[in-house]
Amino acid sequence: MLEIKDLTVKVDDKIILNNFNITINDGEIHVLMGPNGTGKSTICKAIFNHPDYIIEGSIKYNGTELTKLDVASIGKLGLFLLAQNPVEIPGITNAELIRSALSEKENKPIDIFKFNKKLNEVCEIINLPKSFVHRDINFNMSGGEKKKNELLSLFMLEPKFIILDEIDSGLDIDALKEVGNALNKYYEMEHPSILIVTHHQAILEYFKDYQVSILQDGHITKSGTSDLAKEIEKHGFKANVINGSKNDE
Length: 249
Ligand SMILES: Nc1ncnc2c1ncn2[C@@H]1O[C@H](COP(=O)(O)OP(=O)(O)OP(=O)(O)O)[C@@H](O)[C@H]1O
Ligand SMILES: [Mg+2]
Description:
By secondary structure, this protein is of the alpha/beta class. It is 34% helix and 28% strand. The protein has 7 helices and 12 strands. Magnesium ion binds at residues 40-41, 84, 165.
């Protein structure tokens, strides 16, 4: 379970999040929506104790305080961030990074035969060309390719808490379907918690039950279920939905 309490996140003197609270239970899918620039990516990165941010308050994962840990230790606890703009790392291939992360996580050397077999299986599931396994991490990949490439690591590392920051942005219609189906399959297999940041309804069609929270003015201003996401898609944030008095057509 992830519990964020009384969180303030600042960059220099600018307050991005304040009085931010959220609880995400084991196996829960939680959708975070909100206008551009309200701090959705900031909260995703703050969970990983990103060094850009001054963080006050508490972020606990299964009782462990994350604000005191570094990113590698947080990953080892089973959290995974698929970033809005995945970073390019020239000089290290996907296979190299995933293999070393796996052996770190499992505290033992990796059986290379099983590892390669699983890489091939995952490429099939997400419809990623097998040649990507030996490409440098996200390097010279298109926006949509980067998102799928990140899914390769996700499926291989089997995280228990997944943060998807606009995974749907930059995906074409077919890729969105492949990614949606792959994530649904992962959810059915592993029952992780998932925090989904999105501006659109389409990716949510791949999930049955989910909570929705709206982020504005640095904190959650409204919560609900799938109906709230549909409401936002239909009327937008400005249509007074947040204040509970939407403008009807
Ligand atoms: N490292 C940083 N340095 C300076 N300002 C930052 C930093 N990170 C975020 N901000 C600012 O904080 C605000 C929130 O940014 P954030 O990326 O979290 O928005 P967002 O809700 O994810 O928006 P979008 O929907 O466009 O992705 C923005 O005004 C942004 O410019
Ligand atoms: Mg963002």
